[in-house]
Amino acid sequence: MRLPDTIQRLSTLRDSLRFIFAHPLGSRSKAATFARWARWQVGSRLLPGPAVVPFVNDSVLVAEPGMGGATGNVYVGIHEF
């Protein structure tokens, strides 16, 4: 991995963590929010295809890596608060 790639990945990681910890819902339970984030990061790389995750009012959310809005919902519950 080249240095610019590493810097970009670290910048993306920093931005993601800032989002989940600054979000009004994510900041309520930082440990649980971090666990959801970490579970998504690992699981989305190990299991191929879309993931079905619980969402609001007994609905489910179908999300894939790269779907920024959807993964924001996975991390904090409701991306747009």
Count, helices: 3
Our estimate of the beta-strand percent is 5-15%
Structural class: mainly alpha
Shape: globular
Number of DSSP-assigned strands: 2
Q: Tell me the helix content.
A: 55-70%
Question: Which regions contain 5 or more consecutive residues with pLDDT less than 50?
Answer: none
What is Rg?
13 Å
Mean pLDDT value: 90
Major beta sheet, strand line-up: 1-2
Q: Give the biggest beta sheet.
A: 2 strands, antiparallel
Write up this protein:
With about 80 residues, this protein is mainly α. Helices cover about 55% and strands about 10% of the residues. It contains three helices and two strands. It has helices spanning about 5-20, 30-45, 70-75, and strands at about 50-55, 60-65. It has a two-stranded antiparallel sheet. A hairpin with a 5-residue loop joins β1 (about 50-55) and β2. It starts with a helix and ends in a 5-residue tail after the last helix.
